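Troubleshooting log. The previous run stalled partway through. Resubmitting the same two chains, unchanged.
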Amino acid sequence: MLNGSGDGTRALQGLSALVDGELDPAATRQACAQWQGNATARASWHAYHLIGDVMRSDDLASDAAHDAGFLQALRIRLAAEPVVLAPQRVEAPTGEEAASERRAALRGRWSWLGQAAVAAGFMAVASALVLTRGNAPLQGASDSLAESAARGNPVLAAARPMPAAASTSIANATGEAQTIVVDGKLLRDARLERYFAAHAQFDGSSALGVPSGFLRAATTQAPER
Amino acid sequence: MLKRSLSHLAWILAVICSTAVMAAPPVGAGDSPLAPSETRAWLMRIHDAASHQNFQGTFVVSAGGAVSSSRIAHFCVGASQFERIESLDGQMRRVFRHDDVVHTLWPQSRVALVEQRNMFATFPALLHKGDDRIASFYDVNSQGTQRMAGRDADVLLLRPKDSLRYGYRLWADRGTGLLLRVEVLGGRGEVLESSAFSDLSIGVKAQTDSVLLPMKKLDGYRIVNPALTPTRLDAEGWTLRQGVPGFEQVSCVRRPLTGMTDGDDDAAAQVLQAIYSDGLTHVSVFIEPYDPARHLRGLQAASGATQTLMRRLGNWWVTVIGDVPAATLQQFANALEYRK
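Second attempt completed without errors. Output:
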């Protein structure tokens, strides 16, 4: 139960407002904390959503078992898909209450997310970015990569095969190396961008003619100024 | 519960749709290998289309988890080419090209990058040499026709004969030969990067003023003009002990790396850049004096099809970049030797 009936009512009102998207960030945190630790609050949360759904459309008021059956079948199919990457446990940055709440929510109600992430992995294969690097970070954006890895934040398994020999020789040349896979967008290191731009300047030297390389470079390779 | 189911469904559908977009088209049983002379004819046709057709459209590049798009207009008048490219994502950026002069403008920060790119003539020379380098290092297959950007396209699959390069799938407009789409394929046939016109009009009227006028109006812009000085690798004291099969040096310059901001201390620093091409893709080798303050650690990175390798080599710092497998960059870096 929530603490006292007055508090309980207020908390339920908070949840109701949260369902309607009317809470400010601080109140949202508070409501989520209550929702996380209280079974009654969770039941109310579900009920509010169901009420909202039914009010919005009769179509949403169908037999819940149908959806459960669909989801179950989907989970089985997803589980049978080959795993191309293994999402690791999400660790919260220390002292970040909001992240902790998110994590709890992920483990609980959103357990399907892990399976969906497997499906998303097929996209990530093409889009993942692999970094093999020494034990000190490159300046700028890469700092956050190192921190991210150190904390065990979602670091995807190497989605693109990296020849073992290649990694080893880097390790030999530069000391201890680690492989980090992140989304390409995170790598906005100014220093690297300059090399990319200089490299792209020669994109016209392809058999495919000016449009392919040049258009591609002009579309993508431009550091912000 | 119901609402969640729906949101799950939407999520899954989004995943499936985007996967479908990135999925390679089915490899038909009707693949037919092309003879070297046919390959050369195809590539010449693709190349000629770019130098004779007027077109405009939307160009979309999907690589490294990011999708970028731009509006493109391309005009050919006589032997001259004009191009106008406007980025549709992120900070506003306009690129204007008149033959080998390229202006990149950032209207918000009033910065203009003015470049002379004299390498656009490189390719036909490569082809006309008649060494069929592309046919030597890639198996070229015709994969029939498909519809792409509202047009009928011939599909070509270029499969590398060794593991030193990536494969390519090309869609060339049936009528003109213009390249409508390019996919870069990894060793297992996975799509690493895709560039394509999402819509395209071929045969539009040339509007060269839309390119030339903005190139003359640079008032109020801070002009960045990196000077590229041609040089030779051996003249700089360097040698590539063992060449990487298929790759020939097409250029070697001494240049600054253009700085991002005012007062950027690296902007003035000169680097040596050697460019190697196998006819389809190119690799840049950058060499500069090692500076412990700036060159902190070695690095190996992949984003889309583009691989990057950075490492220290004695008193030097080497950066190798190219749309090739990481092991190929290793070969370049390992073969570098300073002999002064």
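Takeaways: Helices of chain B lie at 2-22, 36-52, 122-128, 133-137, 209-216, 326-335. The radius of gyration of chain B is 22 Å.
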